[in-house]
Amino acid sequence: LKIGQKLNEGKTKQIFELVDQPGLVLVQSKDQITAGNAVRKDQMEGKAAIANKTTSCVFKLLQESGIKTAFVKQHSDTAFIAAHCEMIPIEWVCRRVATGSFLKRNPGVKEGYRFSPLKMEMFFKDDANNDPQWSEEQLLEAKFSLAGLTIGQCEVDIMNRSTVAIFEILEKAWATQNCTLVDMKIEFGVNVKTQEIVLADVIDNDSWRLWPAGDRSQQKDKQVYRDLKEVTPEAMQMVKRNFEWVSERVKLLLEPKASGRVVVLMGSVSDMAHCEKIRKACTSYGIPCILRVTSAHKGPDETLRIKAEYEGDGVPTVFVAVAGRSNGLGPVMSGNTAYPVINCPPLTPDWGAQDIWSSLRMPSG
C-alpha cells in the first residue's frame, strides 16, 4: 500500500489516505486505552492488534447480515482498509440493560432494569463539553452536510433503525456464547464516493458492555479499566486479559451455525438407499441431515426415545418418516411431537401404489 497523509487522529486510532486507492483509507489502531474523554490514558501493549481483530470480526459479521459498513478488509494485525467517510458527529447509544451513565441521568431507575424495546440515545461528539446528549430535533436542526449529503429526517431514520438492527444482530450472536450485550455505541459516516450512510469508525471492546452469563461482576469490557481505583502493571494485565478474551470469543461469532436440521427415521435398514437420497438433497441446501433406524410397530418406546433426543435443544427440526407397507412410523411421530413430520415412503413396483395410502390417508390432527 502507498500510504499518504494522515487525515485524522483520535484517541485510539489514526486515519491515513491511500494514494493508489482513491476513496479508501487505512484505519490504524493504537496501543492506547482511555476513559473519561482521555482524562485517564494509558499504554497497553498489544491493544492495537486486539482491537483490530475484534473490529474486523464484528464488521464481517454485520456485513454478512446485510448491514452496510465502511469496512473493506483487514490489512494487517493492527490496521484495516475502509471506505473514506465524512463522519456524522453523533454517537448512537443502544441499551438493553440500565447501567452506567444512564443511572446517573435517570435517578430512581435501578441497575439491571431491562429495556424492551431497546432504549435509544444520541450524543453530540464534543469533548470540550463532555459529549452532551441530543434529541432528534437537535440533530435535525443542526442540518449537517457531509460529503454532499444533508442529514434530514430520512437519514436520521436510517441511522436509528440501523442502530437497532446492529444491536439485535450482535446481541443474538453474543447470546450463543452465553454473554449479554448490555449496551453499545456506534457511529455512522457518509461514504464520500457513494454518498451513502454506512456504519463507520470501529466496534471493539471500547464500544460495548459485555456481561458473561448476564453477571456484571464478570464484565469483560472497558468498564473494568474505568473502574480501576489505581492503574498498576498488574491491573493493566487483567484489563488486557479481558480484551483478549473478547477478541478470541468474537471469532466464534463468525463460525457457521446450523439453523435447523432434518432427522430421517427409517423403519428398516433396507430403506437406507432411499434415505441416502433424502440426505443428499438436504446436504445440497446446506441442511444437516441425520439418519436413524427405528420401527414404530416393533419398538414404539425406542421410537419415542429417539424423538426426544432432538427436542429441547432449541434447534428447529423436521422429522421425515420412511416406512413402507403399512406406515405406523409417521402417525406415531406426528401424534407425539410438535415438530413437522413428513411421510416419505419408499415406493416398490409391486405394492407401491397401494402402500402409499397409509402415508397419505390419515386422520386430521
Note the total helix count: 11
* pLDDT < 50 runs, ≥5 residues: none
Major sheet attributes: 7 strands, antiparallel
| Structure summary, number of beta strands | 20
Give a description of the structure.
The mean pLDDT is 91. A hairpin with a 3-residue loop joins strand 1 (3-9) and strand 2 (13-18). This protein has helices spanning 47-64, 101-105, 136-142, 153-175, 223-226, 233-252, 272-284, 300-309, 329-334, 352-355, 357-360, and strands at residues 3-9, 13-18, 24-29, 32-35, 40-43, 71-76, 79-83, 85-87, 90-97, 114-124, 133-134, 145-146, 149-150, 179-191, 197-200, 208-212, 261-266, 289-293, 317-322, 341-343. It is elongated, with a radius of gyration of 27 Å. The strands form 5 sheets. Strands 8, 9, 10, 11, 14, 15 and 16 form a 7-stranded antiparallel sheet that branches. It has a 5-stranded antiparallel sheet with strand order 1-2-3-7-6, covered by helices on one side. By secondary structure, it is an alpha+beta fold.
